[in-house]
Amino acid sequence: MQKEYRSVVFDSENKKYEIKDGTIGIYPFGDVKKCSILNEEAKYRGKTEPFFHQVLGGTAFFTIMGEPSFYVGLRIITKSNETLAIYVSTKSVYFNTDAYFADRTEAEKIKKVFQAIIKKQNE
Fold first, then answer.
1. Which of 14, 35, 81, 90 has the most CB atoms around its CB within 10 Å?
2. Which residue has the higher pLDDT, 42 or 91?
3. Strand runs (DSSP E) across 5-121, as ranges?
4. How far is CA 49 from CA 53, 70, 103, in A?
5. Can you give the pLDDT at residue 63?
6. Please, are residues 36 and 25 in contact by the beta-carbon 8 Å criterion?
7. 3-state DSSP assignment of residue 83
8. What is the pLDDT of residue 62?
9. First to last CA, the chain
10. What angle do CA 97, 22, 6 make, to 5 degrees?
11. 36 and 44 in contact (C-beta within 8 Å)?
12. CB-CB contact of 27 with 84 (8 Å)
């Protein structure tokens, strides 16, 4: 059975997932150690380690230049401590916009799949 999202496809028959936007590749379920939803500052996407430059949520963060734009995504930590990125946002977003809420909702769905994978490994 496959669960497919724009940025990642889960193949439960072969116990693998394919990242289509982020750290592109096919990875085994067994290597997943941790999964987090994070926001990466737009100007650093693809230029540094994934999610090294984060935009924190919660209390609104404003600078003199205004609110930073960012990409909603998931950071996957593997058992070998490799960091993988899955970007849910196709364009940079801002907090409390329709695009942000849509991307955040999709990221939550993807995270639930990873949590189920991690739970199954730990049984």
1. 35
2. 91
3. 8-11, 16-19, 25-28, 32-41, 70-78, 83-87
4. 8, 15, 21
5. 52
6. no
7. strand
8. 54
9. 21
10. 60
11. no
12. yes
Using alpha carbons only, what angle is made at residue 2 by residues 107 and 123, rounded to the nearest 5 degrees? Answer: 75
Flag whether pLDDT at 121 surpasses 80: yes
Sorted by where each begins, the domain ranges of the chain are 32-121
Sheet holding 8-11, edge to edge: 2-4, 8-11, 16-19, 25-28
Structure tokens at 119: 């739970």
* Residues comprising the chain, all counted: 123
State the pLDDT at residue 59.
47
Using the structure block, give the residue that is written with the tokens 């997932």.
17
2 membership: H or E segment, kind and range: strand 2-4
Span 16-68, pLDDT tens digits: 999 999 999 999 999 999 999 999 988 888 787 777 777 776 445 555 456 78
